[in-house]
Amino acid sequence: MTTPHHQVATATARMRAVADAVVDASVWSMTAAEAASTLVELTKLEAQVVELRSRVARHADELQVGTETGATSTATWLAHQTRLTRSAAAGVVHLGYDLDTHDVVRDALAAGNVRPEQAVVIVRAVKELPEDLDPDLVIRAEKHLVDAAAEHDAKTLRILGRRLLEVVAPDLADQHEADLLEKEEAKAAQATRLTMTDDGHGKTHGRFTMPTVQAAMFKKMLLAIAAPKHQAATHGAGVERRPGPERMGRAFAELIERISAKDLPKVGGTDATIVIHIDLDVLTGKLQKAGVLDTGEKISPSQVRRLACTARILPVVLNGKSEVLDVGRAKRFFTRAQLTAMSIRDGGCRADGCDWPPWLCHGHHWIRWADDGDTDLSNGGLLCPRHHARAHDPTYETTHQPDGKVTFHRRC
C-alpha cells in the first residue's frame, strides 16, 4: 500500500492501526455496563466505516479504478482485491452513489445513527416515491424515515416506507400504494416458480416462489390442517405436537390428498388421478408387493391399501373384477376406464421415439370412428397432441410397427 497523504486515507490507516493494537486484548475484565456500551459504540463505528467505504467506492468508480489491470468495473476489481462476492462489491459501489444523492441518510450513517441495512431500506423507499413529487416533500420523507430509524429496525422501516406518502402527501398515498402493488404483483407473477426433485429414496425435495396472495391462501390452508384441533380429531387426543416445519410439511401432504381430481382440469381426457398397477392379492393384504404408479414411482403395499381405501387413487387391479373396456359403436369418445387401460398398456405416446407420458396424451382411433372404427381398446392407442394431429393429417401415412409403436411418413 502506498503512503497515505489524503486525510481520509490517513484516518483509515490510523483506524487500522488502532484496531491492530487490540487484536490480542482480552475482554474478560470488562464490566457488563462497559461491554454493553462498547458493543453499541462498535455498531455505530461500523456504520461510519460503511459510509466512508461507500463514499470512497463511488469516487473510485468515477476514476475507473481497476481499468489499468483489465477489470471490467470497479465492483469487479473490488471483488477480486477483497474476495467479496461480485454482488456484495457492486452493493458497496451502488450505496456510494445512493448516499451521494440522499444527504440526510448519508449524514445519519456517517454519524452512526442509522445502520447500513436501515440506510438501504430508507433510500429504496424514497426512490419509490412518485418522480414528480415536490423535492421538499422528498426531503421531508427522507427525514421522517431517518428519525423513525431511532426506534425501528430495517424490517419495520420497510413497512413504514410503503406508507410514506401518508405522512408527506396524504392525498396521493392510496393511489401510489395501489400502483406499487400492481407492479409488485406483475413481477411476482413473472417470478413464480416450482421445482421438484425425487431423491430416489422415497422423498421429493423442492422449492417454490409464488405471489403473496396465493402464499397467504396456501398458508391458511396448511394452518387449518396443522391446527391442534384437527390433529387431535385425526390422530386422537394427546397426540404429540410436532415441530412447526414438520407439522406444516405433513399438512401440505394431506392437502394434496384432499384435493379432488374432479376439481382439476382433465389431462389427456381423464381426471388428474394417480393410477396404480396392483395385484388383487396385494390389495386384499394376502401378498406384500410394491405398487407401480402411472408416473413410474413405486409405493409400499400398505400405502396402496390406505390410498385405495380413501379413494385417492385409481387402482388397476390384476386378476380382479374390471370395468367394461370395450363399448364398440355405442360411444364416440373413449371412456375414462379405456383411457386408464391404455395408459397402463401403452405407457405413453405410441409414436416411435416420443417420450410424452400417458397423462398428457389423447386416445386415438386407429380406424377413424367416422369410418366405422369401434371405440375399443384394440382400435385405440395413446398419442401426444403433436402426433395425434399428425395422425389426422392426410399428408402423412401411419405405419404400425411389430413392437406396437407407430411411425409417420409424408405421403409422396
UniProtKB/TrEMBL annotation:
Q: Which InterPro entries match?
A: DUF222 (IPR003870), HNH_nuc (IPR003615)
- Keywords in UniProt for this one? Coiled coil
Recorded superkingdom: Bacteria
Instruction: Please report a single Pfam family linked to this protein.
Output: DUF222
Q: Which parts form a coiled-coil structure per UniProt? A: 35-62
Instruction: Please report the stretch or stretches of sequence annotated as the DUF222 domain.
Output: 41-346
Q: What is this protein called?
A: DUF222 domain-containing protein
Instruction: Identify the species of origin.
Output: Nocardioides conyzicola
